[in-house]
Specification:
By secondary structure, this protein is an alpha+beta fold. Helix content is 36%, strand content 18%. The protein folds into two domains: 12-106, Alpha-Beta Complex (Homing Intron 3 (I-Ppo) Encoded Endonuclease, Chain A), CATH 3.90.75.20; 109-157. It has helices spanning 12-25, 58-66, 96-105, 132-155, and strands at 26-28, 35-37, 48-51, 54-57, 75-78, 91-94, 121-123, 129-131. The strands form four sheets. Strands 1-2 form a two-stranded antiparallel ribbon. A two-stranded antiparallel ribbon has the order 3-4. It has a two-stranded antiparallel sheet with strand order 5-6. A hairpin with a 5-residue loop joins β7 and β8 (129-131). α1 crosses α2.
């Protein structure tokens, strides 16, 4: 869910019912202290739970029931990076941008497999990480294409 999607508030009856159901679905991992949601998971690994006639993410339901309403314009970040975790101490309301930034910071390699290390990483003014090795490869590829185009243009009338 995006942070700008309108939210419907939980009623007191929803909160009581959800608290009991979340407790029944929580499997506590003593090593990580995650409360793994053992109910239904969506294709992305997030727990989902029915509330009346709608479905909510289990971590959002847990936060609203055990902590309070999620502030407007914020989304819930899993500090433990476990999408099925519903432990409220592992959940933090942040902006969507911050949530994406935190997730990206955990990636050790670029999509082409080069390491994100100090020597190979350029941080753009917007805060995005770029791979220097990929940048060099892209420039070489573009130069080869330009040279090939120039050779073809010279031969064709």
């Amino acid at each position: 869910m995006k942070a700008d999607v309108p939210r419907q508030c939980l009623t007191d009856a929803d909160r009581v019912s959800l608290r009991a159901r979340l407790q029944a679905f929580a499997i506590i991992d003593s090593a990580s202290e995650c409360w793994h949601f053992s109910g239904a998971l969506n294709n992305n690994g997030y727990g989902v739970i029915g509330v009346g006639r709608r479905v909510m993410y289990a971590h959002r339901a847990a936060y609203e029931v055990l902590v309070g309403p999620i502030p407007e314009g914020l989304t819930i970040d899993h500090l433990c990076r476990n999408r099925a975790c519903i432990n409220p101490t592992h959940l933090e309301p942040v902006t969507f941008r911050e949530n994406v930034r935190r997730a990206a910071a955990l990636k050790a390699e670029c999509p082409r497999g080069h390491a994100y290390d100090d020597a190979n990483t350029y941080v753009t003014p917007a805060g995005r990480r770029d791979c220097r090795a990929c940048g060099r490869e892209d420039k070489r590829r573009a130069k080869r294409v330009r040279n090939a185009d120039q050779q073809v243009s010279a031969v064709l009338p």
